[in-house]
C-alpha cells in the first residue's frame, strides 16, 4: 500500500497558487504587459512543477490554468499583442462553466468529484451548488470579456489582480447557507451511493 501524496503546507500552496499572479502585477507596475506576461508564463510553469512534485499527482485545475497561461501568454509574446493574455480569464472561466454544466447534463456531479472528501452534501445540494458555480463562471467570463474591451490596460490589470479573487471569495462565502441547508448526515447519500 502506498502512502498518500503529502499536502503542501497552506502558505506554500497559497504561494504556489497566487505567486505567479503577484509577480505579474509587480512586474507590470515596473515594466509593461508583455514583460509581465513573460514573467507570468515562467512563474506559472515553475509553480505548477513544484506543486506537481509536492503533491505527487497532476492537479487538474492548476494544470488547466498553466496550459492556458502558456498558450495565451505565448501568443501574447510571440505576436506582441496584449489581446491574448486579456482573453485568457474569459476562456478559463468559460471552460469552468462548461465543465460544470456539461458534467451535470451528463448526470455527473463535478463539484462532488472535486470536493467530496472535504464537503458532505445531499445530491440536491451538489446539484444546486454546481449550477450556481456554473452560472457564476459564465458571469465572470462575461465581465472579463467586457472589461478587457472597455478598460485601459492598467484598469484591467487591477481588476484581474485585485477584483476577480475577492469576487470569487465573496461568492464562495455566499454559498454557505446552501451548503448548510443541504449538508448530508448520511455518508452513503453524500457519496452518491
Question: Explain this structure to me?
Answer:
This protein is mainly α. The protein has 2 domains: about 1-80, no CATH class; about 80-193, no CATH class. The protein has 9 helices and no strands. It has helices at about 10-30, 35-55, 60-80, 85-105, 110-115, 125-150, 155-175, 175-180, 185-190. The model has no long low-confidence stretch (mean pLDDT about 90). This is Inner membrane-spanning protein YciB. Plays a role in cell envelope biogenesis, maintenance of cell envelope integrity and membrane homeostasis. Pfam families: IspA. It is found in: Cell inner membrane. Belongs to the YciB family.
Labels describing this entry:
193 residues; globular; mainly alpha
The share of residues in helices is: over 70%
Biggest pleated sheet: none
The average pLDDT score comes to 90
Per DSSP, the total helix count is 9
Shape: globular
Please state roughly what percent of the residues sit in beta strands, choosing from under 5%, 5-15%, 15-25%, 25-35%, 35-45% or over 45%: under 5%
Structural class: mainly alpha
What is Rg?
Answer: 18 Å
Stretches where pLDDT is under 50 for at least 5 consecutive residues are none
Number of domains: 2
Q: What is the count of β-strands?
A: 0
In a few lines, what is going on in this structure?
The protein is an all-alpha fold and 193 residues long.
SSE topology:
Layout: H1 10-30, H2 33-55, H3 60-79, H4 83-105, H5 110-115, H6 123-150, H7 153-174, H8 176-181, H9 187-190
Helix pairs in contact: 1-2, 2-3, 3-4, 4-6, 6-7
Membrane topology: Multi-pass membrane protein
Function: Plays a role in cell envelope biogenesis, maintenance of cell envelope integrity and membrane homeostasis.
Subcellular location: Cell inner membrane
Amino acid at each position: 500500500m502506498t502512502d498518500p501524496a503529502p499536502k503542501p503546507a497552506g502558505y506554500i500552496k497559497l504561494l504556489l497558487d497566487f505567486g505567479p499572479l503577484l509577480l505579474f502585477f509587480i512586474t507590470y507596475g515596473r515594466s509593461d504587459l508583455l514583460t509581465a506576461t513573460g514573467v507570468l508564463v515562467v512563474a506559472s510553469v515553475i509553480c505548477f512543477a513544484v506543486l506537481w512534485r509536492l503533491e505527487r499527482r497532476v492537479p487538474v485545475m492548476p494544470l488547466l490554468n498553466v496550459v492556458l497561461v502558456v498558450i495565451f501568454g505565448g501568443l501574447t509574446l510571440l505576436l506582441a499583442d496584449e489581446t491574448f493574455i486579456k482573453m485568457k480569464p474569459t476562456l478559463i472561466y468559460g471552460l469552468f462553466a462548461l465543465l460544470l454544466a456539461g458534467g451535470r447534463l451528463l448526470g455527473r456531479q463535478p463539484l462532488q468529484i472535486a470536493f467530496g472528501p472535504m464537503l458532505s452534501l445531499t445530491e440536491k445540494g451538489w446539484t444546486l451548488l454546481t449550477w450556481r458555480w456554473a452560472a457564476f463562471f459564465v458571469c465572470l467570463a462575461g465581465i472579463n470579456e467586457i472589461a478587457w474591451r472597455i478598460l485601459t490596460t492598467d484598469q484591467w490589470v487591477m481588476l484581474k489582480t485585485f477584483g476577480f479573487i475577492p469576487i470569487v471569495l465573496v461568492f464562495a462565502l455566499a454559498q454557505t447557507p446552501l451548503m448548510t441547508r443541504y449538508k448530508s448526515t448520511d455518508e452513503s447519500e453524500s457519496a452518491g451511493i
